Amino acid sequence: MLRIAIQSVLNQTHREIEVIVVDDGSTDDTFAYLSELSANDNRVKFLTNAKSIGACASRNLAIKQANGEFITGLDDDDEFEPDHIAALIEYWQLLNKFGVKFSALYVNYKYRNNSKFSYSNKISSVHFTDMHNANHVGNQLFSTVENYLKAGLFDEEMQAWQDIEFFYRFLRINGSARLLDINSYVFDITPRQDRISHQNKIKILNACLLFLKKHELTANNLASYRCLIQVFSEYYGFKLRFNDLKLMYMSGLSFYVIIRVLKHYLRNILIKD
What we know:
Layout: H1 2-10, E1 19-24, H2 30-40, E2 44-49, H3 55-65, E3 70-71, E4 79-80, H4 84-97, E5 104-113, E6 116-119, E7 125-126, E8 143-144, H5 145-151, H6 162-174, E9 177-188, H7 201-214, H8 221-231, H9 242-250, H10 255-272
Parallel strand pairs: 1-2, 5-9
Antiparallel strand pairs: 3-8, 4-9, 5-6, 7-9
């Protein structure tokens, strides 16, 4: 799927692009493929990690290597529609022309589940506090390299919620992001064992608690509550257990927040039944 993803970038109608690929310790023929590709197309350059250093560290390496004005990302199992980059640049210039204040753009998804497609319907703009409720951005932001660097890049200590943490910090520092309402990012949701829903619950919960601590939100009852109910939402499908409540308490959350999370969870179970 990596080859399809890269080809979707090289096939963009906006031709003046730089494609930076990070091979994070692969053991297949990825190195040979990227070597041949970069030799035949000078828009492609790649970095190779001798051993895997993780998604955040790999993303940060790529961002630091970027030479263009703008930057965005693409996961190796997703694709760009041909006009994706051109549309983002055109909309960026249009908003600037009319004096609209914004720091980044994001688009709606075209979800792909094997051969079936569906479409997202994201909110029109995202303020950093909106991220308490959900990751309204998704998995990619289109912005300037300068804004990415100003935000401090991805936190390599986060074992999960890396996108939420970075986008929260990015939007808090740089300002709100705006939606370009086109479904130009093909997001693959075909079931696989390494999908987020199969990850360890404690890993996700600890990431949420680390996020709250890092951004000094532990004492903010409303923000804490909204972040925690994301962990126990239908998106993840995790069951709330006593040990989870105990971990929340040991992390410094108030009884008020813990009881609200429990009530929310139980209410949703009753509604389903």
